[in-house]
Automatic annotation (TrEMBL):
Main location: cytoplasm
Organism: Candidatus Treponema excrementipullorum
Protein name: Acetylglutamate kinase
Keyword Nucleotide-binding annotated: yes
Entry similarity comment: Belongs to the acetylglutamate kinase family. ArgB subfamily.
Lineage summary: Bacteria, Pseudomonadati, Spirochaetota, Spirochaetia, Spirochaetales
Residues binding substrate: 65-66, 87, 184
CDD domains in UniProt: AAK_NAGK-C
Amino acid sequence: MDISNKDWADVLVQALPYFKQYTGKTVVVKYGGNAMLNEDLKAAVMQDIVLLNTIGVHVVLVHGGGPEINALLEKIGKEPKFINGLRYTDKETMEAVQMVLTGKLNKDIVGLLLRNGGKAVGLSGVDSGLLRAKKIQSQGEDLGFVGEVTEVNPLIVESLLKQGFIPVISTVALGEEGDDNTYNINADTAAAKIAVALKAEKFVQLTNVPGVLRKLDDPTSLIKRIARTAIPSLIATGIISSGMIPKIKCCEEALQGGVPRTHIIDGRVPHSLLIEMFSDRGVGTMIL
């Protein structure tokens, strides 16, 4: 499709106020889902992040890797096990988690960013004590080495941002003082806590859905904006349900921690991050 020079100019002029708004500010992006599996979408996300970094937006990329962990477990003949939607993580599974998240995936993402012209550094929650966690249970069920973040020490991330780097963070964490274990952490919740610690301007979750829908089977029923105070009633009426609840809870935690805007956007839409950041069209749900 041909776009006239005037249309190109209009796009840039409309984006300019957003450039000014976010230059020098920190944006934390939780990266996962289809955007992490589809090669074309993966390339688009990397391009978006490098562009943001180039114009002076401080981007922190926090990633999961559930499908890749499952694939490795299957290769070694170990069946993935979930309890109340959370991965049961015994010692062998924890080793697989670390291999996939802090090894292969983290470095793959860093490599993609570098090949797209970005400056990126891979980290895990273990590096410089970035994340500390305690063991959790789910409804009384033991989950093994699964933890929740109790402390974020953002010094290493802040230092990298000041030098113009893009920190890429995998979510494994050290135990608290006196606990020598390493824990598997839910990437959504870790990203929310990192956003709070960094005093981020935005917290964005890339997902496999358009956002919060009034009707699950109707993409046109997207709710574009939700006030934090409306969340309890939307959960009570079932509009926010199932897997969307923990994502909304992460947004809620980030808002309560001082992050002004949080977003759940469709990672299946190419360049959805740029559209959300630099236009008034939006591609998901803003919780504010």
